[in-house]
Amino acid sequence: MTKKTINWGIIGLGNIAHKFATDLLTVKSVNLYAVASRNQQKADKFASKFNAQKAYDSYEALAKDKNIDAVYIATPHALHKENTLLCLDQGIAVLCEKPFAMNSEEVAEMVAKAKEENVLLMEALWTYFLPHYQYVLKALQDKIYGQVLKLEADFGFYRAFDNSKRLFNKSLGGGSLLDIGIYPIFSGLSTLGTPTSIEASATFFENGADSTCTMEFEYENGVKAHLKSTLLEDTPTEAIFYCEKGSIKINGGWFSPSTVTLIPNEGTEETIDFGYKTIGYSFEIEHFNNLLREGKTESDVMTFAFSEELIATLDAVRKIINLDYS
């Protein structure tokens, strides 16, 4: 049975959109139909590179194109709600880059609109769909080394401060927490669940955006998750689950295609290579395409409830470290 070809649009044509489009072209039965930027020249260049049929100089024009089935939103964080609502209003399925929006109130509005219009909406947190991460989730669920005792997860890299760049621009949601801190938080929520208490501390750039955020999640059974994001230094960028009978380590770049090392307390460690052949976005694209073809309006992996918990946790950390974007 031939799969329905899905016509994709992309709104926001920065670095992550280039990666997404590269992987989109590796997926069967999809077509990059249209792209949109506020700059026509940028849109034309992107469309030419990835063979998109249409290049728009406004997001509104793309959203009105009736040939589009799904849109990937890759604009700065502060625009996610506005851009998502624009597409949902036109009945277009939306895959919106993480963080879903700036706060819980915005996410609630997006989810309500998706339900009202009966249109598919999903937060694009690609890590959830990567085979190595799914493998670790199952290994933890199966308790191959017993109960988890501690989690350590970090994400850090150095960039020279430049307020003109989106990464540092506080008005666009810049800083370490929303941009990369979301990943360590995701690792805790997706494996250990909701913490009973959160401690956090941060350092800040001169414009008020956070440069580093260190978090500790504590759970009822005494398990702790030590989490960190930073734009001040290159860190190992690993996620390590310390269990009763051994450890499970997702190696460098744990949030992206990576390897997993199994380290038993007794015996020989083993590293598993998952043979990735794409950048890694192809897995969430395949998942989203399947949902769309099946007429689903919510993911059974990246559920609304999980996205709501994720943004609520980000809000809680922001409150503790006194980070205000308003």
From TrEMBL:
Record's keyword terms, sorted: Oxidoreductase
Domain GFO/IDH/MocA-like oxidoreductase: 133-248
GO MF annotation list: nucleotide binding; oxidoreductase activity
Domain (Gfo/Idh/MocA-like oxidoreductase N-terminal): residue spans on this chain: 6-123
Pfam families with a match to the protein in the record: GFO_IDH_MocA, GFO_IDH_MocA_C3
Top-rank lineage group of the source organism: Bacteria
Family (UniProt): Belongs to the Gfo/Idh/MocA family.
Listed name of the protein: Gfo/Idh/MocA family oxidoreductase
